[in-house]
Amino acid sequence: MPIIDLARAFGGIPVTGTITLWADDPAAGADVVAWCRLRGQELVDVSPLPEGGEAFVIRRLV
Predict the structure, then answer these.
(1) How far is it, in rounded angstroms, from Cα 61 to Cα 58?
(2) How far is Cα 46 from Cα 42, in angstroms, rounded to an integer?
(3) What pLDDT is attached to residue 33?
(4) Architecture in CATH of 2-59
(5) Is the pLDDT confidence value at 31 over 90?
(6) What region, left, alpha or beta, does residue 22 occupy, with left being phi > 0 and alpha being psi -120 to 50 degrees?
(7) What is the distance between the alpha carbons of residues 55 and 8, in angstroms, rounded to a whole number?
């Protein structure tokens, strides 16, 4: 589900802007990396969340 949420929200992000996706899905890391690669976007940062899961910062390049 996190990738679907990311894809829905991403259209509203201006080029060079960033969005942060919080996910507690263990598969999210691999999914976000693949999504960025396939869509030509930049994964800027991944950091753990205090309550579990990870925060992914993605920059819109195109």
Answers:
(1) 9
(2) 12
(3) 98
(4) 2-Layer Sandwich (3.30)
(5) yes
(6) beta
(7) 17
Nearest by Cα to 15 from 53, 62, 47? 62
Tokens for 37?
């690669």
Instruction: Write down the pLDDT at residue 1.
Output: 85
Query: Which amino acid, one-letter code, is at 41?
Result: Q
Domain boundaries, the chain: 2-59
Query: Tokens 């201006």, residue?
Result: 14
Taking the C-alpha atoms of residue 52 and residue 42, their distance in angstroms, rounded to an integer, is: 23
Residue-by-residue DSSP string for 23-60: E--TTHHHHHHHHHHHHT-EEEEEEE-TTSSEEEEEE-
